[in-house]
Amino acid sequence: MEKFLPILQIIVSVFLIICILFQQRGTALGSAFGGEGGFYATRRGIQKKILWATYFLGAAFVILALLNLVF
Length: 71
Prior knowledge:
The protein has one domain (about 1-20, about 40-70). It is mainly α. The chain has helices at about 5-20, 45-70.
């Protein structure tokens, strides 16, 4: 258990970094050329799945960090 938790936390942190890097920033390039759409947009499809994966992995990382403190 002592070696399992840190390794699992490293794996979760790598996937968390990947999910954060896959998220889009702001709006798409089309808005730079006069496209419609406001600053706020709803997330759909894969963007929504990446967002939920980021939430899940962030929570898993915090839980694993707390478990590492206890054990």
